[in-house]
Amino acid sequence: MPQMDRYKNRKVYIEFNTEENFNKLPYEERFTIVFVTNGSVNLKLNDYPIKVVAPSVLCLSKEDRIQVIEKNNSAAQSFCFHPDFFNTAYFSEETGYMSNSLKIETGLSLFNKENINTGVYYVTEKAYPKIYEWFFIMGTEVHAQSDSLWVCRIKKYLIQILGLVEELNKSGEQSPVDLVLEYIHTNYSDKISLEDLTRCAHLNRVSLNKMFKEVTSYTAMGYLLTYRLKLSESLLTHTDMSLNEIARATGFEYDTYFIKQFTAKRGMTPTEFRKSSREFVYYYQ
């Protein structure tokens, strides 16, 4: 069932299930993320046999077909959202949702079942606590609606989960650069120094930056800044979080520094970017 937003008199088409049993998946007209925290589940997904072993994430689109074969001491939670959940940057009580052409890009590849992709993504030991925390906060916000920005916070944590899982599953065997990328993608919201990254890679700063440039075209700290700004763009576009909240969420200690870096790299202020990204055609419901 959709959630009623008690602050804005609207329906929000999301659901959170604290004990997912896999029997009703996928949820109608939804993208679904299942976070398996314990045990394993043998499934048939689109007639293809798969095994989901904790800790991992299963991403399902509305077109998927699933059949449970066997569950082995499994525990999981799920969050599902309508495809238009990210396309509702504005809402008013007079006109309802103002539909637009905005499309969230972060993590949507996870739901694509082309080629041999099964939709199952392993969660590393380092990433597990973060994803667990973000899922917990999303579930809490769905049920508590702690203030008028509860939907924005859910979008924020959903973007973070999708982005992290997507980045974790881009490569196989981990090189020193992969180790640092995982560290950045997991901890970007915290204070990170070059020394933190060199310790993670077991390299000195010269060797790390040389290898990083070969893989990403950036130095290690340059990539960190670029990744933080990329995530800030999603939050500016799809939430009404303040600049200070976005700065803190993406690892900038001060909003003034965030504004300075964003303006220098993007050629416009965060506020100007937010306005330009929300130019859309209104459809009254």
From TrEMBL:
Q: Which keywords belong to this entry?
A: DNA-binding, Transcription, Transcription regulation
An annotated Gene Ontology molecular function: sequence-specific DNA binding
| Name of a matching Pfam family | HTH_18
Using the record's annotation, list all stretches that form the HTH araC/xylS-type domain: 178-276
**Top-level division of the source organism's lineage:** Bacteria
The record's InterPro entries line, in alphabetical order, gives: Homeodomain-like_sf, HTH_AraC, HTH_AraC-typ_CS
Question: Which PANTHER family does this entry report, sorted A to Z?
Answer: ARAC-FAMILY TRANSCRIPTIONAL REGULATOR (PTHR43280), HTH-TYPE TRANSCRIPTIONAL REGULATOR EXSA (PTHR43280:SF2)
Stated name of the protein: Helix-turn-helix transcriptional regulator
Please tell me the species this chain comes from.
Clostridium paridis
